[in-house]
Write a structure and sequence with these properties.
With about 550 residues, the chain is α+β, with helices and mostly antiparallel strands. It folds into 3 domains: about 190 residues, no CATH class; about 90 residues, 2-Layer Sandwich (Beta-Lactamase); about 160 residues, Alpha-Beta Plaits, CATH 3.30.70.270. Helix content is about 60%, strand content about 20%. It has 16 helices and 15 strands. The strands form 3 sheets. Strands 2-1-5-4-3 form a 5-stranded antiparallel sheet. A 5-stranded antiparallel sheet has the order 7-6-10-9-8, sandwiched between helices. It has a 5-stranded mixed sheet with strand order 12-13-11-14-15, sandwiched between helices. A hairpin with a 2-residue loop joins strand 9 and strand 10.
Amino acid sequence: MKKLCEKILTILISIFVVSSLLLSAVLYSAIYYMEIHTEELAARDAVDQLVDVILQLEEANQKAKELFVEDYLNRMSFISYLVEDCLEADLAISDAQWAEILERYQNMTNVVSYIRNIPTQLSRILFAVDAQTGEVIGVSRNNVQTMEMENRLERLRDRMDTPGVEWINGQEYLVVVEECGPYLLGFASEMGELQNRSVQYALFGMISIVIVLLIVTMIVYYSIKRYILRDLTMITEGIERFVSGDRQVEFPQAYSQEMNVLCRNLRLLIETVDNSSSRLTLLVEQLGMKVEVYEYNSELDQCYFSRNAFEMLGVSEAEAAAMAKEAYEAGCEPESVKHLRSGRVVRVHRVRNGATLFGFLYDITEEYEKEHQLRTQLQHAQGESQRDSLTGLYNRKYLEDAVTDYVNKHRDPKGVLISIDMDNFKKINDTEGHLEGDRVLLQFARLLESSFRACDVKARMGGDEFAVFLPGEVSEQALRQKLERLIRDCRICLAEKYETHGLSISVGAVFLDRENADYKMLYQLSDAAMYTAKNNGKDSLQIG
């Protein structure tokens, strides 16, 4: 659950960072375009005011100029009269001088002087340009008095309809232009300053957003941890305790109603699962005596047994659970017979349903013992009969008669006699009992029956020794392949004993020909070959 908390915190931090970056980018863009729009409106207002003032100024100047010129001329005539009469000096003013004086006055009251006397911020420029030539007539006094632009007149006329960005004196400016008589009046605002202001506002806004998002993130994480993760941790720990074997699991009151419903359902589920043993016991009581049942659930890793199952198996609860789990994982056959250490014989019938394995245990000890007694009695009654009473294979006497009869009937007899001895078989009898040993002998006898032809004579010589006679000509290569397959199939058929006790077979074989056309000699040679294989490490074959 700690890892889950870390993952949730990581996700929240990621969302916080991404949201901060996105909101910061959106905020900067919004502020930047807002600044441009605001500056554009301010520029239009400034140019409109400038146009109005210049139009009023032109009208006022025209009236004032008429009065001033007339008064100015009267005064100069009077001064000239006084000077000529009183000072007897010739101070007549020529027409060119009068024109220069008038022009100097007009320059003092025209558009150029007005614009040049307007104070502005260093990042803003008010300017007037000749509408015909594009010559710069005037620039506000706080700014550089030049306007270096490519195609100045053309570019400024383009900005009369649509304000936009232009390069002036090597820098980008937002330019707004309006035509006023013979002039193009304009306002230019430095883009760098707009960007700096946008960054400052965006930075302030971003810090505010980060603080708000951080507070929201911490509140969300705390709420999730307190009202969800706490309950999930409690539920997970309870389930883990139940899976580990603790039957006294309790789920305390949760914060949310949904979690309370989940806890209640889990309690009902645990009670249902925990009552599995009682249900199995009730089922067994209905089936009758000498039957026990178990249930293994691999997903929960839990095993439930009926009441007397442990007594029947002669093991503890932990050992019984381990046996059931091993049977599930190994995928054992649906039905098998178990010879227990206690001496009991139990037939196990298994039914697998998805992740659950059901096992039905039948105590057949009495039946098995009766069968064994009947088999022994039958063997004594038959005496020297042809069949081995335990395995159903032919016995030693029959094999000897069959080989001798075959040799006598053929002038050039061909065939193979195979001797087989089971390695480490005594360990099974000593540790698991003779009943389990008999079961292993029966399994191996069935393997021999399925591994050789119907015409081949398969015999149990006694104890854990077997022999097979193959009449007819057989190549050495074919014989070796058959015996290797027999050894391999034995490992698979008796895999459990092979792993626990090292059970295997040593095989010796000898070919029948004219030189050894005698049963006793043939058997001695095959037996010697078998012991050679055993001395070479067991679980192998030797062809003599």
